[in-house]
């Protein structure tokens, strides 16, 4: 479905800010907070984010690379995310982040004790909560933008 955007309006600003200001502005603040306040390393952050982008099919999210202090993941990082199970480009934390993102999005009922045992070997509880909130934000907002056809028009501010 494509949302009717009035001529001259920014699609993201209109849908998120004007159509449902009581929800959209809070959602935008959550989306920005995930990038501005993360304590996660760039590689695990991007492994999870890009895995959700692949699942959602959000064109903008697939093209976006988070930058921190002038550093981004390598250009072929997305290929490693696609092959997260077998790639040698990931350490344990990045691999688990991609796995968690995929399982959270596609099989959250299947997150079993074996998975949590591996996860808590490499992540603190605080990091797991942060990663979970980030994955949830990417899942809902990337999917929203894709479902409404906004992902081809999405522009996020620099952080």
From TrEMBL:
Which InterPro entries does the UniProt record give?
Answer: AhpD-like (IPR029032), CMD-like (IPR003779)
| SUPFAM superfamilies, alphabetized | AhpD-like
Q: Which domain of life is it from?
A: Bacteria
Q: Where is the Carboxymuconolactone decarboxylase-like domain?
A: 28-102
Name the Pfam families on file: CMD (PF02627)
* Stated name of the protein: Carboxymuconolactone decarboxylase family protein
Provide the species name.
Lentzea miocenica
């Amino acid at each position: 479905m494509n949302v009717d955007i009035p001529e001259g309006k920014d699609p993201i600003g209109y849908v998120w800010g004007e159509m449902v200001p009581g929800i959209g502005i809070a959602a935008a603040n959550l989306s920005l907070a995930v990038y501005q306040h993360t304590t996660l390393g760039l590689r695990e952050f991007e492994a999870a984010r890009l895995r959700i982008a692949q699942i959602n099919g959000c064109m903008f999210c697939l093209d976006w690379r988070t930058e921190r202090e002038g550093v981004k993941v390598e250009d072929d990082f997305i290929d490693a995310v696609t092959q997260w199970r077998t790639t040698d480009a990931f350490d344990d934390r990045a691999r688990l982040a991609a796995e968690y993102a995929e399982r959270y999005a596609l099989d959250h009922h299947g997150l079993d004790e074996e998975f949590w045992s591996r996860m808590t070997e490499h992540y603190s509880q605080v990091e797991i909560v942060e990663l979970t909130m980030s994955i949830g934000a990417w899942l809902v907002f990337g999917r929203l933008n894709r479902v409404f056809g906004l992902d081809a028009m999405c522009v996020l501010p620099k952080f």
